[in-house]
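## retry 2 of 3
previous attempt timed out at serialization; input unchanged, resubmitting
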Amino acid sequence: MRRRTAALLAAYPPAATAPLDFLRARFDAGLAWVHFPEGLGGLGLSRSLQAVVDAELAAAGAPDNDPRRIGIGLGMAAPTILKYGTPEQRQRYLRPLWVGEEVWCQLFSEPGAGSDLAALGTRAVREGDDWVVNGQKVWTSSAHLARWAILIARTDPDVPKHAGITYFLCDMTDPGVEVRPLRQLTGEAEFNEVFLTGVRIPDTRRLGAVGDGWRVAQTTLNNERVAIGGMRLPREGGMIGPVARTWRERPELRTHELHQRLLTLWVEAEVARLTGERLRQQLAVGQPGPEGAGMKLAFARLNQQISGLEVELRGEEGLLYDDWTLRRPELVDFTGRDAGYRYLRAKGNSIEGGTSEILLNIVAERVLGLPAEPRTDKDVAWKDLAR
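## retry succeeded, writing output
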């Protein structure tokens, strides 16, 4: 791997090569995702070897693909396209996705189908070689930047809700796609609502079989939770870092009670970090499972508790807020903003990527093997459900 990386650097010196050209060459050399198949950005090798490539390229000053900006494409769309896409779909979408030419978003949640995602009502009706889609999606991160979207829609209302869903790839520039900003507690509009009115999607952009969208979506959701809760961090990375720095630099703010709480949260953050590292090592030999739900649960709880402690530690300073201007940011910056932003933004962590309540059910049923909750709508056709 080091020889391959050195050959790439020799052929495309980072200092003399445009970043996009370098990223394209890296993808073509199989050094984007080394565990992906040859010709699709990989070499069919162990995922663990990616760290070798990344370290060599970082040391040489090579550009990265700005993973925070294209996180939905990298963490959710790509593994789903790889698993269920046709050869033509893989060739068309994976390269521009990885190099950052095309941003992706996720059209899953709806106003009436958030935690109960399978109750979604957006309809896709077959007309010849196309599907005509009508409906509304909500809480769509990056929709204002995205060229493509992963979309699930109801294609058969006469069967139970989980069975009548199909998975599509939607062009966000097509006629009938309307994106509206959703202003959040932070003052920003990083989320959006998306209205789909008579949007025509060719059947060639269907991912998986008709009616099999729920199973395809599980691949997306499992990878999403791993991406959110299992990101690689150094010690004191993430939300615990700013609090620990403030504690060291501002001794006048310290109290015994805050000290005890900080110690507890520091240890829990380190446990979560190491658990995430173990999860990534498990991914190197398989596919993400329900363990990602547990990591995402810990991520949400810790972020909210740590940001609350930071506001208390700073006292009156913690109540300040830098800017309430309506903006539509390209990414979420938890550590580059002030304590007030972190406190408000962390409130969404227990909702986005699957609510904590739903994730607790997943952990209970799929990890601990506890009996499932009673479900009265399991065998009822979607059209007959009370709404």
